[in-house]
Amino acid sequence: MTPSDNDLLQRMTAGDEEAFTTLYRRHQGNIYRFALLMSGSPATADDVTQEVFLTLMRSNHTYDSSRGSLAMFLYGIARNQVLRRRRWDRACDPLEEETEEGEIIVRHLPAQDDPLADIVRGEMINAVRQAVLALPARYREVIVLCDFHELSYAEAAQALDCAVGTVSSRLNRARSMLADRLRAMNHVETAAFNAVSLKCLV
User: Fold this and answer.
1) For residue range 165-192, what is the model confidence (pLDDT) as tens digits?
2) How far apart are CA 18 and CA 200, in angstroms?
3) Which among 112, 133, 27 has a CA at the least distance from the CA of 77?
4) Strand (E) or helix (H) holding 102
5) What is the pLDDT of residues 82-121, one digit of tens each?
6) What is the radius of gyration, based on Cα positions, of the chain?
7) Nearest 10 degrees: CA dihedral of 174, 178, 181, 182?
8) What is the pLDDT at residue 74?
9) Which DSSP symbol is given to 2?
10) What are the residue boundaries of the structural domains of the chain, listed by start?
11) Element (H, E) at 202
12) pLDDT above 60 for 77
């Protein structure tokens, strides 16, 4: 019988290294992809993923299963780490500008920092990726969680520590913004833009 996350967490707290390894293997891929799509940087995604599981080891007692699943708890840590690193990166060596409305304008994305080079195929998918990365963080994170990772509104709300209604309204706005951007670039018709298009990026 496959042990639950809570069982593994209890065993990890008691010093079972194999339990931690199992948790890592179970959740590492999703956490890495979330950080990658949020940051646009493989290096940042690697660092964030490592920090998420180091944080779990150091402070697993802060996880409350009554408030949501362990996966949502890990997404929440990853989200905070990505936002912290993005603020630091912009302050040190800005590749982006942020408007007063919180919109991110990407000025330059080095070729070697192409997070999805191995899986992205075609001009439309590249355009979707760039459009997602250009969204303000509050809209990008709901798109990534709900459309890329297929979380429910309730699960995304747990990860982001906000109301379900907030997730719903932000997701609607994010999809509208993406459709507008892609239409402006003449890459995709309105009818063709949907969550299926986004899943091609994962």
Assistant:
1) 999 999 999 999 988 877 776 654 444 4
2) 34
3) 27
4) none
5) 988 877 655 444 444 444 444 444 444 444 455 444 444 4
6) 17
7) -170
8) 94
9) P
10) 1-95, 116-202
11) none
12) yes
Does 66 have pLDDT greater than 90? Answer: no
Cα–Cα distance between 150 and 202 in angstroms, integer? 11
Closest-CA residue to 114 (of 97, 96, 133): 133
Q: Residue holding tokens 């362990």?
A: 70
* The CATH fold of domain 116-202: Arc Repressor Mutant, subunit A (1.10.10)
Answer for the pair 176, 126: CB distance below 8 angstroms, yes or no: no
> How many alpha carbons lie under 13 Å from residue 50 in its C-beta half-sphere?
6
- For the record, the structure tokens of 80 come out as 């905070």
Q: How confident is the model at residue 71 (pLDDT cuts 50, 70, 90)?
A: very high
pTM of the model: 0.73
Report the C-alpha gap between 81 and 75 in whole angstroms. 10
For 1-95, CATH number out of 1.10.1740.10, 3.60.21.10, 1.10.8.60, 2.160.10.10 equals 1.10.1740.10
Copy the structure tokens of residue 7: 């069982």
| pLDDT: which is higher, 65 or 186 | 65
Return the amino acid letter for 37.
L
57, HSE (Cβ side, Cα atoms, 13 Å):
15
Block residue for tokens 């995709």 = 188
